[in-house]
Amino acid sequence: MPPAPQRPEISAATAAALAREHWGLSGQLRELGSYADRNFLIEGEAGERHVLKITAEASEPREVVELQAAALGHLSERASAALVPRVIPSRAGPLLVASADARDQACVLRVLSWLPGQLWSERSAPSAALRRSLGLALAQLDLDLQDFEHPAMQRSFRWNLTTPEWIADELSALEPGRQRERVVDALAQFRARVAPRLSELPHQLIHGDANEHNLVVEGDALCGIFDFGDTLAAPVICELAIALAYAAMVPDPVQACAEICAAYHSRRALSTFELDLLFDLIRARLAVSVVSSALAHAHEPDNRHVVASEAKSWALLGTLTDFGRRAVTKYIAGACGQSAPVPVPGARSRTRLLAQRRVRLSAASSLAYDSPLYIRRGEGTWLFDEHDAAYLDCVNNVAHVGHCHPRVVEAASAQLATLNTNTRYLHEGILAYAERLCATLPEPLSVVFLVCSGSEANELALRIARAHTGGREVVVVDGAYHGNTSTLIDISPYKLRGPGGHAPPPWVHVLDTPDPYSGRHGDDGPAYAAPIIAAAHAARVRGEQLAAFICEPVMACAGQVVPAPGFLEAAYGHARAAGAVCIADEVQVGFGRVGDAMWAFEAEGVVPDILTLGKPIANGHPVGAVVTTPALAASFANGMEYFNTFGGNPVSCAVASAVLEVIADEGLVANARETGAWLRAALRELDDPGVGEVRGRGLFLGVELVADPETKAPDARRARAIVEYARGRHVLLSTDGPARNVVKIKPPMCFGPVEARILVTTLAAALRATS
Ligand SMILES: Cc1ncc(COP(=O)(O)O)c(C=O)c1O
């Protein structure tokens, strides 16, 4: 948050002298409250009243004061002229610049006409008629400002409702607990639902601060709107959202909103689109208000103006949140004579889908969460349910460049409308993709096979390894998962040791997980690799031969484990010495997820003989890849054709190419590095004895929950409770690791600093709630 403004230090006597000298005004001066300015009421002998406003240039650039004067000048010739103050020019012009304050600061002075009446804030119970009057007045003001232009109207400051994200950095100013979570939720829903659509809303100059201290009333009529200090160009719906964030601080807030909106709508029609975003905009404003108040407590404990409405803001945020967006929006829309917006048409009932699923799909296909989610759309790092409530996706490493990335969608649609066929024809798409992919890889990884899944990639990798070595046996790491085929289940201890599993077949050799936190050899990487020598020997004794050592350079299902230093290098050495080839399974961790490089193996000082890719490769379109060396590819080309009906088709190649382009163009690897580093550090600061370790690389992180930090006994119950708690707060996570006690974090790569702060605050709350 920027520092508190330096209010000009000017005594009433100095102000009186200035008013007399430059405006010819004399009379009694009384200071008026203001957040940033120094304001005086000047009451003349005959009872005429004016306001002298003094603004420090350091806190408000002169062009912004000019903007305000110009807006008032514009309005003086429009229907709402009577509602707003007139600018009384000084002898030198509308504004006067002087080094007038005690600190010799440059100040801008202006005099405005006084609006007679009572402040809205002095009304204990504003009537329905008064609310309607406010709605009409705001609509008129917005209509009158529609054609106003000024070079300074594009303003960036913290009350700009289009940019509330700065509060993500200040969440620690709020007490942990339910209220803070409401602010996080308001921020999240704004970020997900509103921010991407702002540019589609009609923009213009708005007053931008119709709060109860800036509204003048007389009887049941709103007769004045003043303080244009926050005026700015913004979506015009922000005018109403801001006004509602104050005028709805009453016992019947939804009714108040409906009355004001209906009146507003009768003069300036609200579109369904504006109505759909209104609720989230009001809550964003309230979130900014409460965070600002919390920060202001620290800066200016005595400024009553700053903290006046804090408790009421909290109450309104709570009430609106409890009513929920759908109910509030429906009510407001109804009052405006509109039907409620339907952001995601065609939704069915969750219960019916669940029942249907039980009949039509196998129980072996599981659903996430105790209360399964019905997800209808995705955008960036966000998923939206059937009511368009947003969920922060912290776990989908498949939607690598963001859900429904427009460039990916465009690439798929364009190619799908042109050609989709198999690879038995020449096509430039597959070659362009293979070139592009190989350009990111070290030699000799230069021959590409395109398949349809990670499992197919690993199956093919095993076939290549076996064809090249003549061996059959495979060395794997405990906790690993490599795919869903029969062969791959046999080399996936994660599945073999779980429910429905069986002992590994004799041709599979399982190494201990090289986990520096709880592995038996600590961080002695080579010690975990040494048993490969014995495995090779055992195979030879049986007349067999090792074909492959397969391992993820950062282990996912094993619990987001970064292998102990030196493990991969030693393992590759032993495997190759035994005549085996080394397969790096980067189905989960490839394509820059680890942040410091495009490929996770790069940090380990090794180059695999075969690299397998999947999940993120085409942002959810079913693609997998195997990249190997010319020598291994030659061994595999033994006369038997490798045909994959869908693998490498033009649509898949177009999509996969688009993903590589977006990774590069949007700097997603750097984002994984930077956001990931912040996230890791922030998670490590969470003070909870149950957090055994926070680990990972880039945007591939794990939080291991333990029942006892000494014994490191896994606490799966708590890990699960944390994930369920977060799901209840619309933050999607899952558990992993053989004991399912690791909360895993692997969001789309466009996961940014705001999302990271939402996640950390939610995890902190989840830890408190489950301790
Ligand atoms: C490391 C790893 N390898 C391979 C696979 C199999 O990929 P797919 O599900 O696309 O067949 C997975 C899937 O979870 C995986 O995590």
UniProtKB/TrEMBL annotation:
GO MF term set: N2-acetyl-L-ornithine:2-oxoglutarate 5-aminotransferase activity; pyridoxal phosphate binding
EC number: 2.6.1.11
Residue ranges occupied by any Aminoglycoside phosphotransferase domain in the UniProt entry: 31-265
Protein's gene: argD_1
Keywords assigned: Aminotransferase, Pyridoxal phosphate, Transferase
Protein name: Acetylornithine aminotransferase
Recorded superkingdom: Bacteria
Major enzyme class: transferase
Family: Belongs to the class-III pyridoxal-phosphate-dependent aminotransferase family.
